[in-house]
Amino acid sequence: MTLAYFLDGLRCSTCKTLNTLWLDPRRAAVECRECGQSALIFPEIGEARKEGCQ
Ligand SMILES: [Zn+2]
After folding, report:
1. Residue 25: band (very low, low, confident or very high) from pLDDT cuts 50, 70, 90
2. What distance in angstroms lies between residue 7's CA and the mean position of ligand 1's atoms?
3. Looking at residue 18, which CATH number applies to its domain?
4. Closest to 29 (Cα-Cα) out of 37, 21, 38
5. 53 CA → ligand 1 middle, Å
6. Taking CA 20 as the corner, what is the angle to CA 11 and CA 6, rounded to the nearest 5 degrees?
7. Interval between CA 45 and ligand 1 midpoint (Å)
């Protein structure tokens, strides 16, 4: 079972390297293999969980 998916045709916004981004569905995050930059796909959902749905 594959837990990470490479994202073809996407460029890292930090290091500008093409095709180094992969999706980690467990964390709902996209991470760059080149520079380690990561970002949540749905940051608003992460915030809601953290803040306890104010
Ligand atoms: Zn990068």
Report:
1. confident
2. 13
3. 2.20.25
4. 38
5. 32
6. 105
7. 24
